[in-house]
């Protein structure tokens, strides 16, 4: 936890305000850079909507095909001639519909909508009201199919598309309108207060847009004969889906839908997108002599009991060594080709600028492969930091390379409910010289060093008065003092503050107790995972 | 008096053989008889025929109901509609008897808002003269007081407000003496206080103090004002160029800045701005020589056709109005949500 959060709204759950501060601080939410991210077709990176078809009421409800075909037929008919299908084998449109959306085609979005909205009236929920996901009127819920019964609007959609390119383009525009509109809501007020329904709505629109983009590609397939163009379309779809993951929320009945599709598409692209990158070079000669000033706070593979009695209970910082030797991440992640294969086509939020308290600090959404090439492998005068991002929710495959430390099972809370036992896992990946200014977080933290070296300077909460926290709402967990270049004239009491400095090496974990102030600087390219829990 | 519209459309009034036209990409006359004015919602319009108010847009499953329908306050004693403010799922209406009503669009129901403006013994009866709604409904009274319905907003002593305008999360207010105040969320620089803090009550925008502001407008996450010298100032979130500031690297402008106008050769020119209107992420202004200028997103045709072929201009560019228009015939224009309308004499 080096700092607060992307307003980006990661899909991953609502976090306490702290997380939001990171982004709200600058008012730069992800959303805002959609301009930069825009691909070839205008606006295609923003939001979406088949719903579109419906959105403004020209839904072709009387389509004669409606109700005659079944998704199975569609599947059979189309397997092999869709972009997704052709190239992904097991992920063509038919599958999207049958396997994933299966029970989620347009007609049922209305039902879904109802489920999502629960008791809330549609009337006062304009977002979905506007979207009019589909016949929200008189759908009957099919109990046997659970929350997302099957419908066949999708078929109508597909066949209509075959006959009307114009219809398709109009639909995409409407879907975009739905996405842009939802985006406005997601960016209004505080992220944590945005009703989850809008985030479901965003996810739904993204799914439908992905399907429409594929269909659009098919309609135009003759003009994009070559592989490269196909890849551009695919990457655009992946980008859409990542936006859905970042801004939307996992749908209750199919929470892995977006991540699964994105993983498959990425794997498809990765096959032909190999870049040969050398291992990330970590020159730690300069760091060998660095010795932490509290050697008695080092514990080699502490037992659960030792961790509890000497570290967790007394709430004292400590470095835990040899606890993560078995993580595959330690060897695999240094290899950029490995990371590129798993995540190369994905879109991730990065922070650019020296530190989040500075004016030049901002957040961008970037392609992961580009981030690797521009910020990690080569030196860039502009520091780009993939910071405090729930990367492992976005790309669950990476989760297989590490484990949540058992130490995280100790709780400060009496009650042991699901919420309090949840561990919030964030990735911190960047070049040398990333800095998180002195700040504190409300939760326990195990900052785990996968590769590279970091220096962490810690101050106890009792030193707060000597650190001069900002008095503004957004930055009140951040100190004005820079412990690395202290200005004693400006902050005289800082002389009295006594801190602890730790140099974290690969394979070491630092326990940072809640509310302890910490300043974190990467001495080399570095990848850390933080585990936050209550 | 034709009314022209450009931007997102959900009304069957604009249709072709394939159905409703989603984006009206240039100012187009609204095909509705005897139209005198329009209020722009996101997915619907409110159309005025003098004192009669009609609603049309994507508000019902039944296409017929999406054609213009007369909106009538159910209690005759309330009078007819005088002002109507389109919101997400409701229209707030001020009646000719100064009662406030809420019309729930999707339910097609009316609800009378319990009067909250205190009646007192003053000689002058206090009533609403202007309303604005976004996250909340803000009301200005004839006495210059402001209600964040239903609560009276604490305003500085001796300040009388004469106008107000709301963005998504903020409100700006014009005082009688030309000062501008703001309140609400400041996270994207909306408040213009040179910080990102929120503000519960109207606070003077010091950067504009000393200037006499004559007209204000807020939309989305930004605001724009005009001074008596014809200068235009903008601030807030420049997410799509809506501030008319070309720098794309910086998005948040937490302090009002004077907007430069440039000619086709990129040279700064002197210009007198007469009126400005903010949509959600675009801005349109009218200059005293009768030209319309716009900046920000034009994805759904919000700006209509531009004289230069730019998708989403970050500085003000002239709009291409291809019907005959001179400054005398323009009665007014307005931007709201994702659309722009010009009402002519």
Automatic annotation (TrEMBL), chain A:
Keywords recorded for this protein, A-Z: Iron, Metal-binding, Methyltransferase, Nucleus, Oxidoreductase, Transferase
Subcellular location per the Swiss-Prot or TrEMBL entry: Nucleus
Any one Gene Ontology cellular component term annotated for this protein: nucleus
GO biological process entries: methylation
Cross-referenced Gene3D superfamilies: Cupin
This protein's record includes keyword Protein transport: no
KW Iron (keyword) present: yes
JmjC domain mapped to chain residues: 393-534
CC cofactor: Fe(2+)
PROSITE patterns: JMJC
Protein's name according to its UniProt entry: Lysine-specific demethylase 8
UniProtKB/TrEMBL annotation, chain B:
A Pfam family assignment: RCC1
Name under which the protein is recorded: E3 ubiquitin-protein ligase HERC2
Stretches forming RCC repeats: 178-229, 230-289
InterPro entries: RCC1/BLIP-II, RCC1_domain-containing, Reg_chr_condens
Source organism (scientific name): Mycetomoellerius zeteki
């Amino acid at each position: 936890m080096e700092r607060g959060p992307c307003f980006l709204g990661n899909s991953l759950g609502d976090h306490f305000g702290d997380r939001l501060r990171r982004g709200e601080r600058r008012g730069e939410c992800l959303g805002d850079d959609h301009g930069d991210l825009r691909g070839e077709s205008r606006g295609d990176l923003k939001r979406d909507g088949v719903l579109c078809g419906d959105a403004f009421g020209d839904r072709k409800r009387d389509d004669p095909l409606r109700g005659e075909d079944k998704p199975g037929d569609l599947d059979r008919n189309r397997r092999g001639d869709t972009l997704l299908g052709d190239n992904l084998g097991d992920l063509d449109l038919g599958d999207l519909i049958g396997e994933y959306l299966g029970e989620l085609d347009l007609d049922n979005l209305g039902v879904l909508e109802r489920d999502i909205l629960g008791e809330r009236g549609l009337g006062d929920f304009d977002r979905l009201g506007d979207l009019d996901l589909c016949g929200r009127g008189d759908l009957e819920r099919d109990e046997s199919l659970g929350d997302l019964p099957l419908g066949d609007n999708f078929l109508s959609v597909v066949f209509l598309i075959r006959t009307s390119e114009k219809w398709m383009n109009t639909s995409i525009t409407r879907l975009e309108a739905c996405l842009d509109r939802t985006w406005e809501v997601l960016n209004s007020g505080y992220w944590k207060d945005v009703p989850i329904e809008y985030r479901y709505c965003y996810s739904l629109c993204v799914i439908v847009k992905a399907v429409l983009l594929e269909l659009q590609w098919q309609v135009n397939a003759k003009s994009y004969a070559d592989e490269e163009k196909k890849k551009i379309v695919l990457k655009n779809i992946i980008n859409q889906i990542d936006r859905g993951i970042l801004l939307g929320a996992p749908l209750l009945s199919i929470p892995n839908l977006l991540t699964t599709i994105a993983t498959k598409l990425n794997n498809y692209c990765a096959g032909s997108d190999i870049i040969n990158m050398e291992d990330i070079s970590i020159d730690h000669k300069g760091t060998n002599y660095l010795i932490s000033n509290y050697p008695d706070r080092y514990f080699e593979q502490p037992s659960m009991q030792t961790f509890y009695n000497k570290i967790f209970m007394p709430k004292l910082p400590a470095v835990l060594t040899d606890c993560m030797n078995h993580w595959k991440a330690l060897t695999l992640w240094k290899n950029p080709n490995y990371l590129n294969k798993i995540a190369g086509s994905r879109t991730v939020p990065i922070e650019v600028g020296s530190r989040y308290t500075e004016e030049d600090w901002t957040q961008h959404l970037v392609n992961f492969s580009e981030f690797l090439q521009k910020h990690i492998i080569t030196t860039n005068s502009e520091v780009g930091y993939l910071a405090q991002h729930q990367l492992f929710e976005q790309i669950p495959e990476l989760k297989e390379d590490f484990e949540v430390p058992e130490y995280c099972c100790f709780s400060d809370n009496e009650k042991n409910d699901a919420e309090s036992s949840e561990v919030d896992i964030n990735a911190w990946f960047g070049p040398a010289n990333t800095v998180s200014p002195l700040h504190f977080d409300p939760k326990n933290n195990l900052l785990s060093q996968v590769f590279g070296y970091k220096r962490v300077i810690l101050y106890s909460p009792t030193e707060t008065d000597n650190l001069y926290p900002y008095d503004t709402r957004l930055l009140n967990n951040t100190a004005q003092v820079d412990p690395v270049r202290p200005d004693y004239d400006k902050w005289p009491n800082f002389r009295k503050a006594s801190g602890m400095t730790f140099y974290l090496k690969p394979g070491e974990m630092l326990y940072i107790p809640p509310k302890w102030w910490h300043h974190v600087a990467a001495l080399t390219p570095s990848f850390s995972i933080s585990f936050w829990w209550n | 008096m034709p009314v022209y519209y450009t931007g997102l459309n959900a009304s069957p009034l604009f249709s072709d053989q394939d159905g409703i036209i989603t984006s009206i990409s240039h100012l187009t006359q609204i095909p509705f008889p005897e139209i005198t004015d329009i209020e722009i919602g996101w997915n619907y319009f409110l159309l005025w025929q003098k004192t009669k108010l009609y609603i049309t847009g994507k508000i019902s499953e039944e296409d017929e109901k999406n054609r213009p329908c007369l909106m009538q306050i159910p209690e005759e004693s309330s009078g007819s509609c005088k002002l109507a403010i389109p919101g997400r799922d409701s229209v707030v209406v001020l009646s000719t008897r100064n009662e406030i009503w809420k019309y729930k669009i999707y339910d097609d129901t009316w609800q009378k808002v319990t009067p909250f403006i205190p009646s007192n013994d003053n000689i002058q009866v206090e009533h609403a003269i202007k309303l604005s709604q976004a996250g909340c409904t803000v009301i200005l009274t004839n006495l210059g007081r402001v209600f964040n319905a239903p609560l009276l907003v604490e305003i500085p002593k001796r300040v009388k407000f004469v106008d107000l305008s709301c963005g998504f999360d903020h409100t700006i207010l014009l005082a009688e003496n030309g000062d501008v105040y703001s309140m609400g969320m400041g996270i994207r620089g909306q408040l213009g206080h040179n910080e990102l803090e929120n503000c519960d009550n109207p606070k003077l925008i010091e950067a504009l103090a000393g200037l006499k502001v004559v007209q204000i407008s807020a939309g989305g996450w930004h605001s724009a004002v005009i001074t008596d010298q014809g200068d235009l100032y903008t601030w807030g979130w420049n997410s799509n160029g809506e501030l008319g500031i070309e720098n794309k690297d910086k998005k948040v402008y937490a302090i009002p800045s004077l907007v430069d106008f440039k000619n086709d050769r990129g040279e700064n020119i002197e210009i007198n701005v007469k009126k400005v209107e903010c949509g959600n992420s675009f801005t349109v202004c009218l200059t005293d020589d009768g030209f319309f200028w716009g900046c920000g997103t034009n994805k759904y045709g919000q700006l209509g056709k531009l004289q230069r072929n730019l998708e989403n201009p970050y500085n003000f560019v002239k709009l291409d109005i291809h019907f005959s228009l001179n400054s005398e015939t323009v009665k007014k224009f307005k931007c709201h949500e994702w659309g722009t309308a010009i009402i002519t004499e």
